[in-house]
Amino acid sequence: MKRGSHRPQGRWRETWPSISQRPTVDETRTEVGHLEGDLIIGKGNRSAIITVFDRLSRKLWLGRLPINRSAPATCKTMTKLLHRLPPPARKTLTWDQGSEMVMYAEPEQRTGINVYFADAHSPWQRPTNEGGNALIRRYVGK
Fold this sequence. Notes:
The chain is α/β, with parallel strands linked by helices and 142 residues long. Helix 2 runs parallel beside helix 3. The longest helix has 14 residues, at 127-140. It contains 4 helices and 5 strands, in the order αβββαβαβα.
C-alpha cells in the first residue's frame, strides 16, 4: 500500500462529525458511556497507545498499536478496545482531529458508538483525556 493512500483527498476533515453535534448529556457527565480518546506517541515515534477515558467514571482503557500507526491499524485496535466495554458503556467517543481516525466509520459500525471530533487545537474540549494522558506521560515517560 502506498504511503498515505488510506486518506481521502481534499478537505476530508470537514465531513467529520463535530463536537458541536454531540448530545448535550455528554457535557453534563451524568451517564457512563461518553468517552474521550487519543493517541500517546512514544519516543522517536517508535510506539503508540490508544487511551480511552470514560468522562463520568474516569476509567481508562488502553490499546497498544503496532509499529504501523496507519488509519486501518488504528481503527482495528480501536474496535478491539471498544469491544472490551459492555454495550451500554459505548455511547459516544470524542477524538482529536488526527488523521489516524480517518476511518472512524469502521469502529462506529462494528461497536455502535457515535464518534465526534473536537475542534482543531482545542484540547480543553477533551479535558478528561488530556489530563489522564498528562499523568501517563508523567509517570511512564516516553
